[in-house]
Write a structure and sequence with these properties.
This protein is an alpha/beta fold and 368 residues long. It is built from 13 helices and 8 strands. It has 2 domains: 315 residues, Rossmann fold (3-Layer(aba) Sandwich); 39 residues. Bound molecules: thiamine diphosphate (TPP).
Length: 368
């Protein structure tokens, strides 16, 4: 029996900022003041907007909400690496990427209030709506990237998902196809520790998520997802690689979901306060704040101006988003298929009949 090693595979982990806000100067050089200010604005906007949406749910003003707290660096660092025409394919926890894509904030309030008109592609922008079925958006993203390749367009597609999605067939089919066709796509896994109550260690036996790319013939890379500079650098490189025709990358962004899974969850039933405290020490927003302050990138006045602008913008977005007239229930059947299939037509009819019956009952009740 003869044995020889026919391949050797490894995964790199990238970080630039440590948790005290100190940087690896060699890796940090190259970011301009403008870029760093933009990151500072978006990281803080996301933290504040997320808090606001959470409070709106708690006060009964919007429906179920999925917090992004803790994932600011992962979302802002990657979102800012995209060009306007790139395709953004989210799951449901990418509020920060929507912000960097300049989707109006009032529409985001509206969307989390259950209004399907809000993110239904009103301007034919390259930002897809929130996707709830875990992993299914990976297939859509691969299809979009394939279309860009066939049309010889230079747009890159980025698809976001949690590590839970990597247990779904859809993720593997999308990755395989992307590898075989060398598609212009970046798979961005926000590995945030938990898939509702399932920890990452029960999700996969793999040491890293990034190594799953090796099986499909392309590069996987791991990044400190609480380090906005590292995430931005790694994502920029992956996007450039895809744009120049060198195919897909899988990015594993290691971060932590500091809040509950959604406002319907109570994470204290399955994780400890010690674990949360440990990650609070690596808070991406505070870490970046230390870097910005210690290196005098922004002075106190500049920071105050940014925070005041954020407060104002959120206030306006909430006022506008909540004052929109409620959609007609039929609306949720629109914009799904170009031609509505029979099954959906029947469901729509059934709903309309139920609404008529309910309103008749209410009217009768009111007359008694
Ligand atoms: C196909 C499918 N199965 C189950 C669910 C229920 N579900 C909603 S969120 C979730 C966990 C997702 O975890 P992960 O992909 O890691 O993303 P995270 O919530 O951590 O951002 C599950 C199982 C679903 N939405 N879709």
């Amino acid at each position: 029996m003869a044995q020889e090693q026919i391949g050797q595979f490894g995964i790199n982990h990238v970080s630039i900022l440590d948790k005290e806000g100190n940087v690896d100067e060699k890796l940090a050089s190259g970011f301009t003041k403008e870029q760093l200010s933009e990151m500072y604005y978006y990281m803080n906007l996301l933290r504040k907007f997320d808090e606001k949406l959470f409070n709106l749910q708690r006060s009964g003003k919007i429906g179920t909400y999925a917090q992004t707290k803790g994932q600011e660096a992962s979302e802002i660092g990657s979102g800012l690496a995209l060009s306007e025409n790139d395709w953004f394919v989210p799951s449901f926890r990418e509020l920060g990427v929507y912000l960097t894509r300049k989707v109006p904030k009032n529409l985001l309030v509206q969307a989390w209030n259950g209004d399907t008109r809000a993110l239904g592609n009103p301007n034919h922008s390259h930002n897809l709506p929130i996707s709830i079925p875990i992993g299914s958006q990976c297939i859509h993203a691969t299809g979009i990237a394939w279309a860009s390749q066939i049309k010889q367009e230079k747009d890159v597609t980025i698809v976001y998902f949690g590590e839970g999605a990597t247990s779904e067939g859809d993720f593997h089919e999308a990755m395989n196809f992307a590898g075989v066709f060398n598609l212009p796509i970046v798979f961005f896994c926000q590995r945030n520790g938990w898939s509702i109550s399932t920890p990452t260690t029960k999700e996969t036996k793999s040491e890293t998520i990034a190594q799953k790319a090796i099986a499909y013939g392309f590069k996987g890379i791991q990044v400190d997802g609480n380090d906005v500079l590292a995430v931005n650098k790694v994502t920029t490189q992956a996007i450039e690689k895809a744009r120049s025709g060198d195919g897909p990358t899988l990015i594993e962004s290691i971060t932590y979901r500091m809040g509950d899974h959604t406002t319907s969850d109570d994470s204290m039933k399955y994780r400890t306060q010690e674990e949360i405290n440990e990650w609070e020490n690596k808070d991406p927003v505070l870490r970046f704040e230390k870097y910005i302050t210690n290196n005098n990138i922004l002075n106190e006045q500049e920071k105050t101006d940014i925070h005041n602008a954020i407060e104002r913008e959120i206030q306006e977005a909430v006022e506008q988003g909540l004052s929109v007239e409620k959609p007609n229930p039929e609306q949720m059947f629109e914009d799904v298929f170009a031609q509505m299939p029979e099954m959906l037509k029947e469901q729509k009819e059934e709903l309309l009949n139920e609404i008529i019956q309910m309103s008749e009952q209410n009217n009768n009740g009111g007359n008694q």
